[in-house]
Amino acid sequence: MIKNKKKPKDHYIPQFYLSRWTTNGSLFSAKYIEHIGKISWTPRSPKETGYERGLYGEVEKTFFMPLDDKASKIVSELHDQGITSLQKMELGEKNHDMWAKYILAQIIRVPKYVNEVYRIYNQSGIETGAAINQLPSIIQNKKAIKDVRSLKWLFVKIESNLELITSDNPIIFKP
């Protein structure tokens, strides 16, 4: 897919997720610089990292942003419950489905996988624009949602002075 600076930033790592790991509104973004063999750490706001321009098109606004907003509210509700130790997540029926969709989106919306979906569709003669519009259907697959819902979910709030390292693929999925 051709990238263009005029295209909007499509966040494959939701800003609400990244904002939970900030200090003074910033987090450190790492980039491996191959020709010198080192990692460069740069402070960035959640808005300035975890995105690729033009990755999803309108699907960012119509599907991913509302999904991220709902997932953010679920996380905030769990956080506000004052959990101080390991606790099973009690989400309720509606939120359980929404959480499963969010987790599936985190697996699929990474540029590597999105571009693979586009490649497969293109090989079948389907244009990238049509493939983009299939992302919500892929993520909302009923069998996949049922499988994710069958998992046990725990919410843990840990007070620590240790730092967290996450990645541009925060959910590693290995079937």
Features:
single chain; 175 residues; two-stranded antiparallel ribbon; 7 helices; 14% strand; globular
Short note summarizing the structure:
With 175 residues, the chain is of the alpha+beta class. It has seven helices and six strands, in the order βαβββαβαααααβ.
Mind sketching the topology for me?
Layout: E1 9-11, H1 15-19, E2 27-33, E3 38-44, E4 51-53, H2 59-80, E5 87-88, H3 92-108, H4 111-123, H5 128-132, H6 135-139, H7 142-149, E6 154-155
Antiparallel strand pairs: 1-4, 2-3, 5-6
Helix and strand pattern: EHEEEHEHHHHHE
**Averaged pLDDT:** 84
Quaternary form: single chain
Number of distinct helices: 7
Total strands:
6
Largest beta sheet: strand ordering? 1-4
Strand content: 5-15%
Ends apart, CA distance between termini: 27 Å
| Class computed from helices, strands and strand pairing | alpha+beta
Description:
The protein is α+β, with helices and mostly antiparallel strands and 175 residues long. It is built from seven helices and six strands. The protein has helices at 15-19, 59-80, 92-108, 111-123, 128-132, 135-139, 142-149; strands spanning 9-11, 27-33, 38-44, 51-53, 87-88, 154-155. The strands form three sheets. Strands 1-4 form a two-stranded antiparallel ribbon. A two-stranded antiparallel sheet has the order 2-3. A two-stranded antiparallel sheet has the order 5-6. Helix 2 packs across helix 3 and helix 3 packs across helix 7 (142-149). 20% of the residues are buried. The model has no long low-confidence stretch (mean pLDDT 84).
